[in-house]
What we know:
The longest helix is centred in the first third of the chain and has 16 residues, at about 10-25. The chain has helices spanning about 5, 10-25, 85-90, 115-120, 140-145, 150-155, 160-175, 190-205, 220-235, 245-250, 270-275, 275-285, and strands at about 45-55, 60-70, 75, 100-105, 110, 125, 210, 240, 255-260, 265-270. The protein is globular and about 55 Å long. The strands form 2 sheets. The protein has a 6-stranded mixed beta sheet, sandwiched between helices. Strands 2-1-4-5 form a 4-stranded antiparallel beta sheet. Helix 7 runs antiparallel to helix 8. The chain has a domain at about 5-120 and about 245-285: P-loop containing nucleotide triphosphate hydrolases (Rossmann fold, 3-Layer(aba) Sandwich). Helices cover about 40% and strands about 20% of the residues. Bound molecules: adenosine-5'-triphosphate and magnesium ion. Magnesium ion (MG) binds near residues 84 and 85. Magnesium ion binds near residues 84 and 85.
Amino acid sequence: xSVTATADFMLEPILDAxxxxxxxxxxxxxxxxxxxxxxxxxxTLLTLEDISVSxxxxxxxxxxxxxxxxxxxxxxxxxNGAGKTTLxxxxxxxxxxxxxxxxxxxxxxxxxxxxxxxxxxxxxxKFQKPTVFEALSVFENLELAQKTxxxxxASLRARLSGEQKDRIAQVLETIRLSPSAQRQAGLLSHGQxxxxxxxxxxxxxxxxxxxDEPVAGMTDAETEFTAELFKSLAGKHSLMVxxxxxxxxxxxxxxxxxxxxxxxLAEGSLEQVQExxxxxxxxxxx
Length: 286
Ligand SMILES: Nc1ncnc2c1ncn2[C@@H]1O[C@H](COP(=O)(O)OP(=O)(O)OP(=O)(O)O)[C@@H](O)[C@H]1O
Ligand SMILES: [Mg+2]
């Protein structure tokens, strides 16, 4: 099934948008970057079809269809309670859908995998609140993030290989924390802690990064850097970014999905969804 074919399941505005998405991915050479032996069909990294989640009869997600391309940077917007965080919970295995399909690549059925298996398969998630080890240095936080199954102290005592050190240096550079490598993480600004946590995710080299309201509470300069960072990560990774800050969304997104009452209301470029009457009515026009 190709991206275009899967669009048959979708509402009309989405159909057109998805055709564009497939074409533009080809145009900028994405869709070829899937790594680590993950099978991706026609450049689709994540496939969600007919996903529903019920909480005591209330449908937080309702027949949701969503496709994320390899290397794509997708923004998810929508009013409070639309189901954005629940969507991330489903992808990471925290919440099981009551119906629907969720595939990572062509072969991994996310609905049958544990949270740990999903993380190990290459899906990294950043929650809204930074969760770094405050008492450890920035470097040590990154060092820990690349280890999976050892205790904290065993990991810190173990010798790092040259390759591992290089990787940490590279990530420090990416998140602009090289000068603060030896600084205690608890002393960083809120924004820097957020960058450190993104760095910790990057140590695992995930193919899909889920970021829930990443710029909430950031300064303008930090928000600007986050936009640059995400744009530089796209292509190598796929990113799904939930954000209410429209200025930020406008600065990064080439493709936006609007959620409303647990379903996809519209999809397309930010300009396209901003012109959509229903989107204006339920979200932007408030
Ligand atoms: N564990 C749960 N039990 C019951 N209801 C829940 C649960 N988790 C979420 N909900 C409900 O599901 C709906 C979707 O919530 P969700 O957190 O996914 O929205 P959201 O789009 O992330 O909103 P926001 O923009 O405010 O973060 C809400 O009405 C919420 O109250
Ligand atoms: Mg939320």
